[in-house]
Amino acid sequence: MPELATDGVTAYFEETGSGPPLVLVHGLGASTALWSKVAPSLAEEFRVVAYDLRGSGRTSVTGAATLSELVGDLHGMIARLGLGPSLVMGHSVGGSIALAHAAAHPEQVRAVVGVGALSGLPDAGRDGMRARAEAVEADGMGAVAETVATNGMAPSFREAHPDELQGFVSLLEKNDPGGYAALCRVVADVDIAGALESIEVPVLLVAGALDAVVPPEANEANAARIRNSRAVMVDDSAHLLPWEKPDVLLEIARPFLREAAGLVAPRES
Fold first, then answer.
1. From CA 110, how far away is CA 108, in angstroms rounded?
2. CA within 13 Å, CB half, 7
3. Does residue 132 lie in a domain region?
4. Quick check: 229 and 204 in contact, CB under 8 A?
C-alpha cells in the first residue's frame, strides 16, 4: 500500500499515468474513491496523484485537525513526491484546501480546479457541521451517512441510480467517526474568502445548480475574488459532482487543465 509520511501523518496515496502532475484532493467523508470515475481518464494525459486526507480512508487519524494542517499535508505531498509545480483539483473542503494552498504556496501550483469548493459557510451551516460532528461521535457514521449522501445528490440522479446512492452511503459509513468529526469541525471553521484575493494562478470553479453547500451564486462570488478565474454551473447536479456527473466534469475541467499544463496553446481572449 503506497504511503507517505508527511508532518506526522502517514498518508495513503495512489499514483497513475504520466505527464504534467495533477493532484486530486477529496472532500469530507470521501477518499480516493471519490475520483474513481474521473482519474482513469485524466491519467491518459497527466501524472495523477490522489490521496486520503488525514482521518479519511486509509490515512491515519490524528485527532483534532485544522485547515492549515491539511494545507501543510498537500504541500508535503507535492514536495516529497517531487512533483514540482502541479495542477490541483479539489472537491468541497478539498477545494478549500487546494485554494488555500495556492494562496500560501504559489510556487507549487500551476492551476486549481475547485469542485463545489467552499470559502466558508453561513452561521447555520457552521452550526450544522458542529452538530454533525457530535452526532457521529455519539452514535457512529450510521447516524448521518444516508442523510449526507442523499442531500449531496440531485433527486434525478438518486432516482435513476439508487445503487450509486448506496455506494456513497457505504463509502461514508467506512469513515472513522473520530476522523470524520475532526474534518466536520474543519469545514465549520473554513474562512478563506480573504485568501482568494491573493491567488495568482488560473482557477476554474465548478458547482452544481442544486448544490446546497456551495450554491452557484456563492461559486460565482468566490470566482469574482480571484484575478484569473471563471465559474461554471452544471445543471441538475448537486454537491457530489465527481460522483454524479463525472463525464460532464471531465468535459469542463480537461480543456482547462490541458491549457494550464501547456499541452495545448492558450485560447484567444
1. 7
2. 18
3. no
4. yes
Residue ranges of E strands in 178-263: 203-208, 229-234
Does residue 142 belong to any structural domain of this protein?
Answer: no
Number of domains in the chain: 1
Q: Is 246 within the bounds of a domain? A: yes
Domain range spanning residue 203? 3-121+191-260
Contacts of 181 (CB under 8 A, 6+ apart): 132, 133, 134, 136, 137
Distance CA(232)–CA(223), nearest Å, equals: 10
- Nearest CA to 204 among 137, 245, 257, 242? 257
Collapsing DSSP to helix, strand or coil, 18 comes out as coil
E strand or H helix at 177: helix 177-189
Q: List residues bridging with 112 in a β-sheet.
A: 88, 203
Question: Residue 9: in which H helix or E strand, if any?
Answer: strand 9-16
What is the predicted pLDDT for the residue at 268? Answer: 58
Say how far apart CA 45 and CA 43 lie, in whole Å. Answer: 5
Cell of 136: 457521529
With left for phi above 0 and alpha for psi between -120 and 50, is residue 113 left, alpha or beta? beta
Task: Check: pTM over 0.85? Answer yes or no.
Answer: yes
Tens digits of residue pLDDT in 154-170: 999 999 999 999 999 99
The distance in angstroms from the start CA to the end CA of the chain is 45
Give the type of residue at 153.
M
Place of cell 474521473: 38
